[in-house]
Specification:
Layout: E1 3-10, H1 22-30, E2 32-40, H2 56-70, E3 74-78, E4 92-94, E5 97-100, E6 102-106, E7 112-116, H3 123-127, H4 129-155, H5 163-170, H6 172-192, E8 196-199, E9 206-212, E10 215-221, E11 230-235, E12 238-243, H7 263-270
Parallel strand pairs: 1-2, 2-3, 3-5, 7-8, 8-10
Antiparallel strand pairs: 1-11, 4-5, 6-7, 9-10, 11-12
Length: 277
């Protein structure tokens, strides 16, 4: 039975890259029935998109999201830096689908959430985009190498190992970047009077209440679907940071057909009249 939730937020899926764990994300999406699903940036990696690599498992995630929209879930797609090309089309609503750069949600208890991807705080993205893109390709290669290493470790009966997490935790500059990012988001949220500030971008899942002399807010980060496999879930006034259990999937037994995606089918799916959940 699907878990009913008020709100689910995922980010940094990076469909179209080798590191994306689309198969695991599809399992998660099929297990839930949220009233609203927020895709908080970098859902499709347009920066690194290549015609030679967009496997069926990635298409199935898109299909699953479309089916959720058709069944009544409101889909909010917030743009990130890797899918920034979509920003020229933002602030549109078509049926159960909304495309925007940021979203402010007000809950039944009167509390407000400020949701955005977070790349606006990243100077390397704003001022040296080519460096950021180069780094993205390097990260994708690192993940691909890591897949090979974990394949070997699994057959030796050893635990999996994350190269990128090890590198990030050992490089002081990376640690400082994450800290500065979080501090900036928190300060601005308190200044603007938001009860929750919700980001993605840095691939670091987080949930913590912050109290300062200027006020308080809860900082939440949805992590990613490359290494952490995390999502934020809100239901009946409570936030949970969901960690997906890595499930072994028999690719040969997956006989589900994948429809050919085209513009007409996409519009038909997401422009269905709103339904009550």
């Amino acid at each position: 039975m699907k878990r009913k939730l008020d709100l689910v937020i995922i980010s940094d899926v990076h469909l179209g890259t080798y590191g994306s764990r689309a198969d695991q994300l599809k399992l998660y999406l099929k297990s839930i029935k949220p009233k609203t699903l927020v895709l908080n940036g970098d859902f499709i990696d347009i920066w690194q998109f290549r015609k030679s690599y967009f496997p069926k498992s990635h298409l199935k995630v898109i299909k699953q999201v479309m089916e959720m929209a058709k069944s009544g879930t409101k889909i909010v797609y917030i743009t990130g830096n890797h899918d920034e090309m979509l920003r020229k089309f933002t602030d549109i609503k078509i049926g159960n689908f909304e495309l925007c750069n940021k979203k402010i949600l007000e809950f039944a208890d009167g509390k407000k959430a400020w949701i955005f991807h977070g790349d606006i705080f990243d100077l390397s993205v704003q001022h040296s985009k080519w460096i950021a893109k180069l780094g993205g390709h390097g990260y994708d290669l690192l993940i691909l190498i890591n897949v090979l290493i974990n394949w070997i470790l699994e057959r030796l009966g050893k635990e999996k190992y994350s190269l990128s997490k090890k590198i990030k935790s050992s490089v002081k500059k990376a640690v400082s970047h994450v800290s500065n990012f979080e501090d900036t988001a928190i300060e601005l949220a308190i200044e603007q009077g938001y009860d929750y500030v919700i980001c993605g971008h840095i691939h670091q899942p987080q949930k913590r209440q912050v109290d300062t002399e200027n006020g308080s807010t809860m900082y939440l980060n949805s992590g990613d679907w490359i290494e952490n496999l995390t999502a934020l879930e809100y239901h009946k006034g409570s936030w949970e940071l969901y960690h997906h259990t890595d499930v072994k999937i028999d690719k040969n037994s997956d006989s589900e057909e994948v429809m050919q995606l085209n513009l007409n089918e996409l519009i038909k799916e997401v422009t269905a009249p709103d339904k009550k959940v």
